[in-house]
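assembly run, all chains below
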Amino acid sequence: MEIPHVADRRHLECDVLVVGGGTAGTMAALTAARHGASVLIMEKAHVRHSGALAMGMDGVNNAVVPGKATPEDYVADITIANDGIINQRTIYQTATRGFEMVQRLESYGVKFEKDEHDEYAVRKVHRSGSYVLPMPEGKEVKKVLYRELRSRGVRAKVQMTNRVMPVRVLTENGRAVGAVGFDTRSGEFVTVAAGAVILAAGACGRLGLPASGYLYGTYENPTNAGDGYAMAYHAGAELSGIECFQINPLIKDYNGPACAYVANPFGGYTVNGEGNRFVDCDYWSGQMMAEVKREIDSSRGPIYLKLSHLPDATISEIEGILHTTERPTRGTFHAGRGTDYRERDIEMHISEIGLCSGHSSSGVWVDEHARTTVAGLYAAGDMACVPHNYMIGAFVYGDIAGEDAAAYAKGAARPELPEDQIAAAHELIYKPASNPDGPPQPQVEYKLRRFVNDYLQPPKTERHLSLGLEAFERMRTDIDQMGARTPHELMRCAEVTFIRDCAEMAARASMTRTESRWGLYHSRDDWPLQDDENWFCHLNLSKDSSSGEMRFDRRPVAPYIVPVPGFVRPDGVPDAAAPRAGELAAAWR
Amino acid sequence: MAQANFRADVPVTVDEAKCIDGCTLCVDMCPLDSLAIHPETKKAYMHVDECWYCGPCAARCPVDAVTVNIPYLLR
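ok done. output:
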């Protein structure tokens, strides 16, 4: 393919640039447009079927519905699930604004399950509160959002560029002013000037290699390759909790959710090879994952999702949900293996590692207004560090980011874009095309991700992590030599650079936190104990502005605004008052 | 560099008899952009073995021509 000259480019302008048109990104765009901003969504897939909800979602994991649960319960539950290391003000937003978001989604046409009294049919999966709310027509959720983006009133304010992939955020004097990317079909070079930038690019789901060895057989949508983590890092933003990996209990080989959240209320549960239950709470936490791994590795392994004891009609109902929403090929998988839930329980295993604050807590550091540490740069959704934030949290933070970014962009100057950064991004994008005979991306990526498995999978040790770092440094050379022949291959090559960046961050952050915490997520065999005296703090990493090296800073855990029953803060910092009504960002109306 | 062409069993198959000339719905929707229109047959096909077996291609096909199989390594 022909490499475009750096000056030969499509240039776009907007008030608010949204990177990624998934859950958080579509909501950010809708809210920013509502607040009068001109919005551009840059999406490397197609907004209609992109992001973690590509095909839909079977339910909401974290809706605090008035009368069913309280924000205080939810904040306390998540504080405990994350071993106390949490900025409660961020979680409080999800807790207090989640219900409004459910209603907003309903007004768009998303259906949530109601009981015979027309009340939301929330279910208990967490340790104490009931926040799980099924979406019976969850496969329509992205369709509904897309329709909203194309509706009268919104359409004129929101541009969407499908199949255009950003690779770097542009900064000027420490402020985000735009982005650089390319068209993954035509190869065209693209620059964007913006008043504010919202990163909503999803998890780093293509970090570990699945046990199947198939590069794209990941738990997360494999298009989510850590793009946002890498872009935020290179823009100078802080990231936090990167050592707190995402690892999930899944259907073996299929690598999709089993899914106890759906099956639990119907009487399904997880058992070991002897048919006995071994976890008292099916909520996905690091502690639960440690128990799952121990059971699988023991003589009582493997583990199964047990449904075979249920009546036929109940199983058909479960199949009706699990085989149509979120991952509809699940039925195809079972049919191919000849597995029928009525006759056999379903073998489970643990997933590859990833980075995802939607499920655990690794992400770009944000405050309760979705602001990163770089002015004019926001993060929302799976890539923003708001622990266990799931889908409702992604919508809430998209909404918050959209509102704040629209206000920021109004008063923001529009400087000339920095040509040196544009040239560097051009080099990053097109270098593989100048070397078409170099090693192809599938081989380079396979090797990189095998090293991730070899050296980063918990339990972690200093020695393994150091070897991992060496491997990731060596992979810089491999990436330098990688070859591509089409714009599509350039996309995959750029993603390999993101995966490498994330692997390095994961190794260094894991080495720095010399203790074990969050169950399996950060289990260090050489530091087996939780060390509250030294490590009851956030561990933030960033690119040092003078040396360009990765640096680490400890951030104190902010005073709690919600008391956590049964949990004593090891640092003795007293609780602060809960925010007054309206003190946090205003509601969407 | 020495190179080899290698054959792969790809997960998404298209029934060419059903696939409509000029329709690009499955190609437009694939999150991984793994489908394309073949320049000779003018029919959709999987041009790279990159698949999350997620299903929008099959769900959006108006004539039921697209089948998503589980990738061989997972089957």
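The mean pLDDT of chain A is 94.

Residues 487-512 of chain A form the longest helix (26 residues).

not gonna interpret more than that til we talk
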